[in-house]
Amino acid sequence: MSALDALERRCIFRSSERVETHDLVSTELADHHLRWHAGRVDTRMCKFDTPRLSLYALRYGAEVSILPDRYDGFSLVHFSRAGGIEISADRLESRVPTGRAIVSTPRRTVALRWSEGSEQLIVRVSHALLSETAASMGRPDLHAALLGNPGLALDDAASAQWHAQLETFAALDDRSRINPALAPWVAHLERGMAMFLLVQAGAPCGAPCAARASGPAPERDRRRLERLAAFAMANLDRPITLSDLARAVALSERQFNAFCHAHLGDAPLVWLRGLRLDAVRAALREDPAAELADLAMAHGFFHLGRFAGFYRQRFGELPSETRKTARGG
Q1: Which of 142, 170, 201 is at the close of a domain?
Q2: Which PROSITE patterns match (predicted)?
Q3: What is the pLDDT of residue 206?
Q4: Is the separation of the CB atoms in 94 and 86 below 8 Å?
Q5: Which of 5, 83, 142, 263 could form a disulfide with 198 if both were Cys (CB 3.0 to 4.6 A apart)?
Q6: Residue 112's pLDDT is what?
């Protein structure tokens, strides 16, 4: 018996109606257009979540085409449990057969086609969690690499490892999720899954990846992302201007702004602020006794009122709440 079978006990809806299916799935994952093809509608969605990750088991029964709205601040990791799917993300075509996984992070457009009878295990992971984890690793370039790849296909070995992590995640019972004493372990599990995805984003490309990314431009962009991340991390404690960042990667400000929107999904200074906030949060969790004002200023925030507002906007809580959780309640 697989630990994933526990998901069967957490079904949040079943439906044989097309309109109802669209409305329910849109509420949970992302708004989308849904086109039905061959087969009988037999939709079932099961859900298991922790404070920072959500795992879904979803099937439509029939063959379907899906055109989601742009993913806003999150990636979806698909694992084909049965049947396969095809994904076109920012014109990058990928096929995900049974037993394989893909990290979908489209910046502009995405379209999916599910085969009849396909069942997908889908993890919704926020970019805030990924960015924070990358900062704690000292590798913000991994976060940039993941955001820059609209369809990160995992090979057989990595897909099997991801499936094993899904089983561990799904095996958490309700007591584990709500017991405050186990909160640090649950948070460790969440960060471990995020770390796994980041490491995959930094892994060397295989032949299919190399074929898609042929030519000098992707390699040049990768080097620029690495230089940008290194420059930002080395200067988190001082004011950095748009001009400073652009010079670090040898681009004009206009070119650099376009580069950041294309590869990081944000304006340059918004990305930098997120990097600073992630570093503060990681430091606060590591040392909850640290003086908050000192931490903020050590990471380039010199107006504490604005800092608290930015922090709450990114993480959904105030720094004092993060400190309280890190102290064990």
Answers
A1: 201
A2: HTH_ARAC_FAMILY_1 (PS00041), HTH_ARAC_FAMILY_2 (PS01124)
A3: 39
A4: yes
A5: 142
A6: 93
Report the mean per-residue pLDDT for the chain.
85
Verify that 232 and 296 share a domain, yes or no.
yes
The DSSP 8-state label assigned to residue 191 in this structure reads: H
Please check whether residues 247 and 118 belong to one and the same domain. Answer: no
As for how many domains the chain has, the answer is 2
Which residue reads 């004002």 in tokens? 293
Which of 145, 174, 201 is where one domain is finished?
A: 201
By the 8 A CB rule, do 113 and 259 touch? no
SS3 264: coil
Tell me: do 162 and 256 sit in the same domain: no
**H-run or E-run covering 187:** helix 183-201
Instruction: Say if residue 158 is in the same domain as residue 228.
Output: no
What pLDDT does residue 253 have? Answer: 93
Half-sphere exposure of residue 35, counting CA atoms within 13 Å on the CB side? 7
Give the list of residues 6+ apart from residue 272 with CB closer than 8 angstroms, or none: 232, 240, 245
User: Per-residue pLDDT tens for 184-214?
Assistant: 778 888 999 999 999 998 865 433 343 333 3
Q: What is the pLDDT of residues 73-97, one digit of tens each?
A: 899 999 999 999 999 988 788 999 9
Which residues, other chains included, contact 277 with Cβ-Cβ below 8 Å and sequence gap of 6+?
299, 310, 311, 314, 315
Q: What is the 3-state secondary structure (H, E, C) of 116-164?
A: CCCEEEEEEEEHHHHHHHHHHHCCHHHHHHHHCCCEEECCHHHHHHHHH
d(CA 28, CA 34): 15
pTM above 0.70, yes or no: no
- Greater confidence, 181 or 2? 181
> Are 133 and 223 in a shared domain?
no
101 shares a domain with 175: yes
Distance CA 227, CA 80 (A): 36
Per-residue model confidence as pLDDT tens digits over 256-280: 998 888 777 788 999 899 888 888 8
Do 65 and 113 sit in the same domain of this protein?
yes
